[in-house]
Amino acid sequence: MIYGMKNHGIRLKPLSKESSEMLFYGRIFGSKDIFPMQFSEVSKKILKKCGGIPLAIITASGLLANKSENIKEWFKVCDSIGSGLGSNHVMDSMRKILLLSYYDLPFHLKTCLLYLSIFPEDYAISKTQLIWRWVAEGFVQQAGDQSLFEIGKSYFNELLNRSLIQPAYMDRDGTPRACRVHDAVLDLVISLSIKEQFITILGDGKHSLESKYQVRWLSLLHNNNTAWPSMKMPKLRSLTIFKPTGVVIDPMTPSISCYHLLRVLDLQGCNVEDLASLGFVGSLTHLRYLGLPSSSTNAKLPVEMGKLRFLQTLDLSKAGVKEMPSSVITGLGGQLMCLRGQNGLGTDLSSDLLENLTSLELLESATVTSKCTAEKLGRMTQLRVLSVIIRLSTPDDEEWSACTNALVESLGKLTRIESLQIHHHRFYPIDLEGSMAEPLENLCRLVCIDLATLLPGWIQPASLPILSYLEIDVRDERREDIKVLGTLSCLRHLVFRVRLAPELQVLERCVVGPDAFPCLVSCEFHVRGGGVVPGIFPRGAMPRLQNFKFSVKPEHFWSGGGSTVDVLVLGHLPSLRSVTVTLGFLHNREDDTIKSVREKLEHEAAAHPNHPLRILFTS
């Protein structure tokens, strides 16, 4: 049942028997055609009890995927579900399946799942923030040489594989940046959390704070009338405020400063005029995670924050902080593992401050302001995720060149780096040239936005042996650049943008070799200020390409002013599923030009066995 406006329900039809079987067997064995026949009888019983409800089927299959070779376990699960007869019994069966999935979890995953009850209904939970919160709460236990974040990521993936959380906001490479919790799962974990006094929720209109509770994790949800609780909470470990609660921070200051056991404090849903008024956080010496709100007047951090010796995560993404005081960084020092700066603006970190951040694993939206700062980045050898903005006060080309060369040299020292994103604040592009002492053997994701005149020389197989995602802007494109990219043997996702100079209108056509891009699954090719059909694909190139996007002006399909239309050889791409072509409107051509181009594209798609094509028009 789905409820919409004015609580009118829309009853959805359950899945058919065939669809239920495809979903069930596909998630456990990969296909309905290869499941062992000895599981047939018990499978039919389980599916009958699921009643065609997708969530019940998905959750049951997620539970049984770990027991795919033990038929006795399947019968135990089947017997535990219930009869499944009638609509109410089906819902009871689904709840029992969810409970079975919960009780089947190892202890650490139970705790991580219950923790999700602090988030509002249908809330998109950032994967990165969630994992760092788990780390701060002590839910993630060290094992071997893996970092705490990597272990936490395995927890996240396990909950995802068991269908207890759902992916949200996917990256181009299909990796979820966030997750959501299905309403039925959320209802279950909230009830379990409250029963175990794990979470206390205020502001959702359903729960109230009782004096008999020992409040440890407090969540203030969406309600403009939410009042700050007056009762004492000496054992409070976690406080999260979600927008729009309307909670004003100043009257709460005396209360929060008394919570000496707080490990997680997320104030990003608060109203605050001056960040300096948050000096009370300096007394919360056990804090591991701190998320600060935006301010209307003063975005300077309180110096008292330097007392937080055990802080692991500092989230300034909403705070508008452009500069980190030296007293704060010096005080935080060696425990800080995650520092998120202001999105899109960057947060200045002087070279002296970087000396104290050698434990950082994630550094987002940091500003490189000098050659010295770029050099000091090379000492942060624990970094796995780095996002920097190059911003120099001088327009001097030599200064910029020295800074970028130092940056590239420093990057070569970050042997643990897995994700790298580089932007710059300048009206014209800069070359990101330089040499690396060591290849970036762990780098999987690289994004260079509006940066390079040409493809940097260090983007090549020897330096980036396992690169799987590349997004890059260049101002000029050479045939040899495309050939180099084609030799990146692990590259699965490519976004290539060319911003043509005004004097250039059409690029030289790219022709790739027969063994180019062996693992590429998705490709985007965009030209701004001009256009070209990306290239001719010989047999053997891009054998795994499924999704292809490019943008082009219709007149650039034409040659010599005549009516010959260049033809993309899409038939040589056997795995192709989707082609999206964005056509700009013509200025000097009649509508029959667009019609002719469209017919040619549709002809190419019709000739392909998979018939992939989607045409968009833009102004």
UniProtKB/TrEMBL annotation:
InterPro entries: Apaf_helical (IPR042197), Disease_R_plants (IPR044974), LRR_dom_sf (IPR032675), LRR_R13L4/SHOC2-like (IPR055414), P-loop_NTPase (IPR027417), WH-like_DNA-bd_sf (IPR036388), WHD_DRP (IPR058922). Residues 118-189 form the Disease resistance protein winged helix domain. Gene3D superfamilies: Helical domain of apoptotic protease-activating factors, Ribonuclease Inhibitor, Winged helix-like DNA-binding domain superfamily/Winged helix DNA-binding domain. One of its GO terms (biological process) is plant-type hypersensitive response. Keywords: Plant defense, Repeat. Residues 235-612 form the Disease resistance R13L4/SHOC-2-like LRR domain. It holds the Pfam family WHD_DRP. The keyword Repeat applies. The keyword Repeat applies. GO terms for molecular function: ADP binding. It comes from the Eukaryota. This is NB-ARC domain-containing protein. It comes from Panicum virgatum (Blackwell switchgrass). The lineage of its organism: Eukaryota, Viridiplantae, Streptophyta, Embryophyta, Tracheophyta.
